[in-house]
TrEMBL record:
It holds the Pfam family P5CR_dimer. Residues 2-97 form the Pyrroline-5-carboxylate reductase catalytic N-terminal domain. The keyword NADP applies. The lineage of its organism: Bacteria, Bacillati, Bacillota, Bacilli, Bacillales. Its EC number is 1.5.1.2. It comes from the Bacteria. It is an enzyme of class 1 (oxidoreductase). Residues 159-262 form the Pyrroline-5-carboxylate reductase dimerisation domain. Belongs to the pyrroline-5-carboxylate reductase family. This is Pyrroline-5-carboxylate reductase.
C-alpha cells in the first residue's frame, strides 16, 4: 500500500511520524509534498527512504490513499491540482471537517473519506473520527480504520456530528491544556510550588482520569462523586466551578459550531464562485 500526504505542517508531519513510529507504514511507502518544500525535506531527514515530490499531483498519482492535510481554505487549490490525476480506485482522505463529503465527491472522481485526527495520535492515543463517503466500500473502510487503529481509536461518526465530536477528540486537548495552564499558574503563584512539578502532576492526573473514563468505565458524574466526599474540599471547589462556569460550555459549543459553519460557507464559496464564473463566460 502506498500512502501520500499533501501538506506537511503540524498534522501532516504528525501523521507521518506516528504511522512510521507505529510500524504500520515504512518511509518508502510514503510520498509527501507541501507548499514549503523545506518541510518535506525535514521529514525526509528524519525518515530515510521517504519519497518527496515537488507537485501535489505527483503525490496523488503515486498513492493508493492520499491524506490532504491543509486548512479548509487551502483545499480548493489542492483539489484543482489533483482532480485530473486521481482515479476511481484511489481514496482521498480529508483531515479537515469543513469540507463536506458531497462537495469532495462532486469535485473528485475517486473514493473519499474524512478522518479527523488528534494531536494525541502522536503518542498512539486518543480517537480519530471516521466519516466515510458513499463510494467507500467495506474493504476500504477496513483498510482505513485498520491504518488509523495503529495510532488511535477510530470512531465512526455521522457527518452531521463531526463538529461536536471534533470538539472533544481534536480541540479537546487544547481546551484541557488551557484549563491546566491557568490552574498550574495559579497554584504556583499562590503557593510558590515549582510549576514544572505541578505540570508533571497534572499530566499524570489527566492520564489516570482518562483511564478511569475509558478502561474504568466511569462517567464524569460518577468520577466526581467518588472524589468529592460530602462536605469535603473537592465538593467545595466543585461548587465554585459550577457557579463560575455555569454556561461556558454551551458558549464553547456554539463558538466552535459558528466558526465551523463560517468555514463550511467560505470553503464552499471558493468552489461555487468558480462554477459561477464558468457559467458567466
Ligand atoms: N492541529 C490539530 O490538532 C488538528 C488539525 N486538524 C485539521 O488539519 C488541518 C491542517 O492543520 P495543521 O496541520 O495544524 O495546519 P498547518 O498550517 O500546520 O499545516 C498545513 C500545511 O499545509 C500546507 N499547504 C497549504 N497549502 C498547500 C498546498 N496548496 N499544497 C501543499 N501544501 C499546502 C502548508 O504549507 P506552508 O508550510 O507553506 O504554510 C502547511 O504546511 C486543518 O484544517 C485542521 O482543521 C484536524 C485535527 C486536529
Ligand atoms: O483548530 C482547528 O481548527 C483544528 C480543528 C481541530 C483541531 N484543530
Amino acid at each position: 500500500m502506498k500512502v501520500g500526504f499533501i501538506g506537511t505542517g503540524s498534522m501532516g508531519s504528525l501523521l507521518i511520524d506516528a504511522f512510521i513510529h507505529a510500524g504500520v507504514l515504512t518511509p518508502p511507502q510514503i510520498t509527501a509534498s507541501s507548499r514549503t518544500f523545506a518541510k518535506v525535506q525535514k521529514l525526509a531527514h528524519r525518515h530515510a527512504g521517504l519519497n518527496l515530490s515537488l507537485r501535489n499531483s505527483d503525490t496523488a498519482a503515486d498513492s493508493d490513499i492520499v491524506f490532504i492535510c491543509v486548512k479548509p481554505l487551502e483545499f480548493k487549490c489542492v483539489i484543482d491540482e489533483i482532480r485530473d490525476v486521481v482515479t476511481p480506485d484511489q481514496i482521498v482522505v480529508s483531515i479537515t471537517s469543513p469540507l463536506l463529503l458531497h462537495r469532495l465527491e462532486s469535485e473528485l472522481p475517486c473514493k473519499v473519506s474524512k478522518i479527523i485526527p488528534s494531536i494525541t495520535n502522536l503518542v498512539g492515543s486518543g480517537a480519530s473520527l471516521c466519516i466515510h463517503g458513499s463510494r467507500i466500500n467495506e474493504e476500504d473502510r477496513y483498510m482505513l480504520e485498520n491504518l488509523m487503529s495503529a495510532i488511535s481509536k477510530p470512531i465512526r461518526v455521522p457527518e452531521s456530528h463531526t463538529r461536536v465530536a471534533s470538539d472533544f477528540a481534536s480541540c479537546g486537548p487544547a481546551f484541557l491544556a488551557f484549563f491546566l495552564e491557568q490552574w498550574i499558574q495559579a497554584g504556583s503563584e499562590l503557593t510558590g510550588m515549582d510549576s514544572r512539578q505541578l505540570n508533571d502532576l497534572a499530566g499524570e492526573m489527566l492520564l489516570g482520569t482518562g483511564k478511569l473514563l475509558t478502561e474504568g468505565g466511569l462517567t464524569p458524574a460518577e468520577l466526581q462523586s467518588r472524589v468529592a466526599v460530602p462536605g469535603g474540599i473537592t465538593a467545595e471547589a466543585l461548587m465554585l466551578l459550577e457557579a463560575s462556569l455555569h454556561d461556558v460550555f454551551h458558549k464553547l459549543v456554539r463558538t466552535t459550531h459558528h466558526k465551523y459553519e463560517e468555514d463550511v460557507r467560505k470553503a464552499d464559496a471558493l468552489f461555487n464562485s468558480e462554477q459561477f464564473n464558468q457559467q458567466q463566460y
